[in-house]
Specification:
alpha+beta, Nucleoside Triphosphate Pyrophosphohydrolase, 2 helices, 16% helix, Nudix_hydrolase, metal ion binding, DNA damage, metal-binding, 8-oxo-7,8-dihydrodeoxyguanosine triphosphate pyrophosphatase activity
Length: 130
C-alpha cells in the first residue's frame, strides 16, 4: 500500500541576515523538532498562496516570497511529506507563536545547531552553504 502524500510549503523568513526558526510543540506530530514555518496546501491554492496564508494563520504575520529554495520529501510513519521551501521576508507582524512552542533567529551558519525535522534538513544544508 502506498503512503499518503502530504504537500506542504515552508518559509525561511529572513531579517537582518538571520533566519526565523520555529519549534514544533511537544505532544504533536514531530514535537520538539525545529522547522521553517508553513503548512499544507489547500485545494486550488498555489504553493505561494498557501505559504502566505499559513504564515498569517500560524504567526499572525505577513510575508513576501523572495525566491524558491528547494523541494524535499521525507517518508514519515504517517505519510510522505513533500515540501517546497521559499526564501521570504517579513512585511508586517511580529511572528507570534500561535502554534509553535519556541522560536529563534539564527545566522545561516548557525542553522545546523538545531534538531531539524528531517524534511527541513535539505533546505538547512542549502542555506548554510550560501
Amino acid at each position: 500500500m502506498s503512503k499518503k502524500i502530504i504537500n506542504v510549503v515552508a518559509a525561511a523568513i529572513e531579517r537582518d541576515g538571520k533566519i526565523f526558526c520555529a519549534q514544533r510543540p511537544e505532544g504533536k506530530s514531530l514535537g520538539g523538532f525545529w522547522e521553517f514555518p508553513g503548512g499544507k496546501l489547500e485545494i486550488g491554492e498555489s504553493p505561494e498562496q498557501a505559504l502566505v496564508r499559513e504564515i498569517k494563520e500560524e504567526l499572525n504575520s505577513e510575508i513576501e516570497i523572495i525566491s524558491y529554495i528547494n523541494d524535499a520529501s521525507y517518508d514519515y510513519d504517517f505519510g510522505t511529506v513533500v515540501m517546497k521551501t521559499y526564501h521570504a521576508k517579513l512585511i508586517s507582524g511580529n511572528l507570534e507563536l500561535l502554534e509553535h512552542q519556541n522560536s529563534t533567529w539564527l545566522a545561516p551558519d548557525e542553522l545546523d545547531t538545531l534538531n531539524w525535522a528531517p524534511v527541513d534538513r535539505p533546505a538547512v544544508e542549502l542555506l548554510t552553504k550560501k
